[in-house]
Amino acid sequence: MSWYARRDLRKIHRWGAILIALPFLIVLITGVILQVKKEINWVQPPSQRGVSTIPEISFGHILDVVKEVPKAEIKTWDDVDRLDVRPSKGIVKVRSNNQYEVQVDTKTGEVLQIAYRRSDIIEAMHDGSWFHDSAKLWIFLPSAIVVTVLWITGIYLFFLPLYAKRTNRKRLEKLKQRDN
Fold first, then answer.
1. What is the pLDDT of residues 59-68, one digit of tens each?
2. Cα–Cα distance measured from residue 167 to residue 164, given in angstroms and rounded to the nearest whole number
3. Same domain, 51 and 81
4. Do 98 and 128 belong to one domain?
5. Contacts by 54-63, CB closer than 8 A, 24 or more apart
6. Residue 94 pairs with which residues in a beta bridge?
7. Could you tell me the pTM of the whole model?
8. DSSP label at 45?
9. How far is CA 46 from the centre of its chain?
10. Are 72 and 78 in contact (CB under 8 A)?
11. Based on the number of CB atoms within 10 Å of its own CB, is 47 exposed (0-12), middle (13-18) or buried (19 or more)?
12. What does the DSSP 8-state code read for residue 71?
């Protein structure tokens, strides 16, 4: 490869790294947090255990129970983001639109835990959708492509001197053998 190509690869590597520094840092930090979300209660509340693994209460009863939790701000099903039913743990996690999670025992209907759930917000930051819908496709996707190019150019720039040394060593050995 010519000197200019190597110089250009270094420039691409350097400027690409500067270009994606902030989005990539966001992806890295949020990725690390998401990797340990089950170990950090601040990120994702731990799952509780109900008294039975066989669900016995109805969805209507679940809604009535979570309506009584002021922090969740649930009045109708429109205020519920999702239900996460865990029969093996005997609970249903009701996530409200304001990011509160209410864990309800599926046998007794008792509220086992009320906690703020940050993992969904962190996931949205991780993929860029938290900032703006277009940020996901126009900032974070190109950043991922640039990171791939940085990886390729970095590997090439790392191995190029090793390859050159090996080639020079072989060339010198052949010259020595020819001279002898």
1. 999 999 999 9
2. 5
3. yes
4. no
5. 54/87, 54/90, 54/106, 54/107, 55/85, 55/87, 55/90, 55/92, 55/106, 55/107, 56/106, 56/107, 57/104, 57/106, 57/107, 57/108, 57/109, 59/83, 61/109, 62/92, 62/94, 62/104, 62/109
6. 83, 102
7. 0.71
8. P
9. 19
10. no
11. middle
12. G
What is the amino acid identity at position 108? T
117, 47 in Cβ contact below 8 A? no
One-character DSSP codes across 110-123: -EEEEEE--HHHHH
Whether 76 and 132 map to the same domain: the answer is: no
What are 65-114's pLDDT values in tens digits?
Answer: 999 999 999 999 999 999 999 999 999 999 999 999 999 999 999 999 99
- Which backbone phi and psi does 105 adopt, to 5 degrees? -70, 130
CA 69 vs. chain centroid, Å, equals: 30
- What CATH number did the domain enclosing 50 receive? 3.10.450
Same domain, 134 and 70: no
Residue 154 DSSP code: H
Residue type (1 letter), 174: K
